[in-house]
Amino acid sequence: MAENKTVTDCIVFPLDLPTVAEAAGYVRQLSGRVGMFKIGLELFIAGGGQIIEIIRECGDSAIFLDLKLHDIPATVGRAMERIAAWDGVAFATVHCGESPAMLKAAVSASSGRVGVLGVTVLTSVSGNDLQNAGFDPVYADNPGALVMKRAQMARDAGCAGVVCSGRESAAIKAEFGKNFITMVPGIRPDWSAGKEDQKRVVTPAAAVQSGADYLVIGRPIRDAKDPGKAAEQIAAEIRAAAGGGIG
Ligand code: C5P
Description:
The chain is of the alpha/beta class. The chain is about 45% helix and about 15% strand. The chain has a single domain (about 5-240), classed as Aldolase class I (TIM Barrel, Alpha-Beta Barrel).
């Protein structure tokens, strides 16, 4: 975790909502209580860039455009140019895929205005899926090896970091250094209700202790009776886990 960041800065809330109006309600409640809002495909397809303007009007939260681009390098580069033309988009995602050319095109088109994060292996993909897709048994037996290979590809292409599970963050930091950003979804505080569809979950404390820079925390906040209070409780847990190392 970068030394100049506060605990609140580390919390990323995904606006996984079907309409701009519903998303705007969460932005108003959570601005100042989380550091970044993540806009995914659902909301972006529903409302385009409207939500970016709303987030900026509500405060100085960072914006993460999680569109997980995957296309020929020229097309990804052109899409990234449009993303970089928006003010205030801190991060955007691109799949690591089969070749580094797509990542390199994204990094070049970002013009240093957007941090490109590589999506290594989706946490919904199993070793069995990799085997059926024709991957080498080295990866089918150990998907974590493919995560590391793709993190290397992302690093070599000039990406700012990767999206990975909390269980992979420590190894990625050890291999690629503390400045290579890890954005970690699949966070579940001990008190949150069901573990739903996320398989490789970790607590906020464990994620911070593994060196994660940003924690994507959706349903434990979104579905809480008081989302603002839930975000504050998570911040307190992170603060305790960091042992006073961050503000
Ligand atoms: O905390 P919660 O499970 O509700 O967060 C879900 C968010 O995390 C979604 O926006 C999803 O896109 C994102 N995500 C994920 N697993 C990944 C990458 C991103 O759940 N491997």
